[in-house]
Amino acid sequence: MEYKHLSHGFGPIYDERSRVLILGSFPSVKSREENFYYGHAQNRFWPLMARLLDAPLPSDRAEKCALMLAHGIALWDVIEECDISGSADSSIKNAVPTDVRRVLNKAEIQGIYCNGALAYKLYMQKLYPLCGIEAVKLPSTSPANAAFSVERLYTQWRQILDKL
Q1: Taking the CB of the first residue and of the last residue of the chain, which one, N or C, has fewer CB atoms within 10 A?
Q2: Euclidean distance between CA atoms 81 and 63, whole angstroms
Q3: List of residues 6+ apart from 66 with CB closer than 8 A
Q4: Which of the four pLDDT bands, split at 50, 70 and 90, describes residue 86?
């Protein structure tokens, strides 16, 4: 396995009206190429958000940002930099966390939700001690999480709507 030390490369999506913060782990190869969140065509994040928010599927970066901000959702990742091989969360080593206080100091976040087990684990280890806000672990929208159908993801992810 060939490891590279990489920085995140792009910042959070949020504004002062954000009420929910969704945290992934670290951008995939495709997301790094596109310089934006959930860039892999098979990732179910954007279709899931459109369904949850009863909105059209956003087609580009501007529409994706607008969808999140219009519904009070902030989006970021737990890891600012790390050693990684490809896109696999399981390969991540030497993770340096983002400073979520950047978002928390500007927005009245009512709930923090982690997209997948690694994002949750790292949040609780490295970020919870800084901010004291418990996070909720949600099943990953990654295509690697084939055990979860879109319907199962929808059922689990619906809880974010309670905080919006």
Answers
A1: N
A2: 27
A3: 58
A4: confident
Tell me the three state secondary structure of residue 90: helix
Go through the chain and tell me how many residues it has: 164
Single-letter amino acid, residue 56: P
Residue type, 44: R
48, 143 in Cβ contact below 8 A?
no
* The pLDDT value given to residue 87: 83
Q: How is the beta sheet containing 79-84 ordered, strand by strand? A: 4-7, 79-84, 93-97
Q: What pLDDT sits at residue 1?
A: 77
Which of these, 74, 81, 80, lies nearest to 22 by C-alpha position? 74
Q: pLDDT tens across 25-38, in order?
A: 999 999 999 999 99
With vertex at residue 75, the alpha carbon angle to CA 71 and CA 79, rounded to the nearest 5 degrees, is 170
Q: How many CB atoms lie within 10 A of CB 11?
A: 11
Report yes or no: 27 and 37 within 8 Å, Cβ to Cβ: yes
Q: Which of residues 87 and 140 earns the better pLDDT score? A: 140
